[in-house]
Specification:
alpha/beta; 29% helix; 22% strand; Rossmann fold
Length: 254
């Protein structure tokens, strides 16, 4: 049974009712197609300065870290810089990857399976943090493997609109905030000194990054539609929308 079976006299935008937009603060029905005009390339000189800011903020804690846990692939770049500058020789490489068909976040490199009871200060290092899904997966893994350790989180870029902290983290440090999700107002752009647009890091290829964002957005949209699919009554052909109890959240690129 299709949407055309609904009487026109219902008098509401069926698609908006179908998706229950009251629970979707930042989701757009028509998925935005990003172009090169939406991107903002970062050169190596700027990247070095931002990593320097991140390093200063980590240094300001006056903590002694025992290990750096870089989230590869991109997190390995600042992770190695911080490890060298902080004179940390122990690395705990982590790698997670979003896949679209079906949607999932997988660990993509071998990781230890036996918990270590050492009391360590571990600095998790990422390059770009948006919704925080990968960060939370990394934190959960390290909590299992190093249950007696304290975790800190450092990211070169923190996307405005994403989480400001994570459960189980002692400290959260970043080098720059960006408006990659285009959620900030002009006043917020100024207040938080946000870097505009989608940051393209020096080693990235803009076409690859845009494709990854579009694939992620499309997959999130498909999941949303499936979760809120309307149910039809065969007897009276009236749509009955079963709203989910948990609010839905838009997921942007990692």
């Amino acid at each position: 049974m299709g949407i055309s079976l609904l009487p026109a006299s219902l008098g509401f935008d069926f698609r908006r009712q179908w998706l229950n937009l009251s629970a979707l603060d930042d989701f757009r029905i028509s998925m935005r197609i990003y172009t090169k005009a939406d991107t903002n390339p970062m050169c190596w000189e700027e990247y070095g300065a931002v990593v320097g800011t991140l390093l200063d903020r980590v240094w300001a804690t006056r903590l002694s870290f025992d290990a750096v846990a870089p989230i590869m692939r991109s997190g390995a770049i600042p992770g190695n810089v911080l490890a060298i500058r902080l004179q940390i020789t122990r690395l705990i490489p982590l790698q997670f990857k979003y896949f679209s068909h079906p949607a999932r976040l997988d660990q993509t490199n071998p990781m230890q399976t036996q918990a270590i009871t050492d009391h360590l200060n571990i600095l998790i290092c990422e390059n770009n943090t948006s919704t925080g899904g990968t960060a939370q997966a990394a934190i959960a893994y390290l909590r299992r493997m190093f249950p007696q350790s304290k975790l800190h989180y450092a990211t070169v870029a923190k996307v405005f609109g994403g989480p400001d902290s994570f459960e189980g983290i002692e400290g959260y440090y970043f080098g720059v905030q960006t408006n990659e999700r285009f959620l900030a107002s002009p006043a917020q752009m100024k207040e938080f000194s946000l870097r505009p647009g989608i940051t393209i890091f020096p080693w990235e290829i803009v076409e690859h990054e845009l494709k990854e964002i579009h694939d992620f957005e499309a997959n999130s949209s498909n999941n949303l539609l499936e979760t809120n699919r309307p149910r039809f009554s065969a007897r009276c052909r009236v749509t009955v929308l079963e709203r989910e109890s948990a609010p839905l959240k838009h997921k942007g690129p990692l």
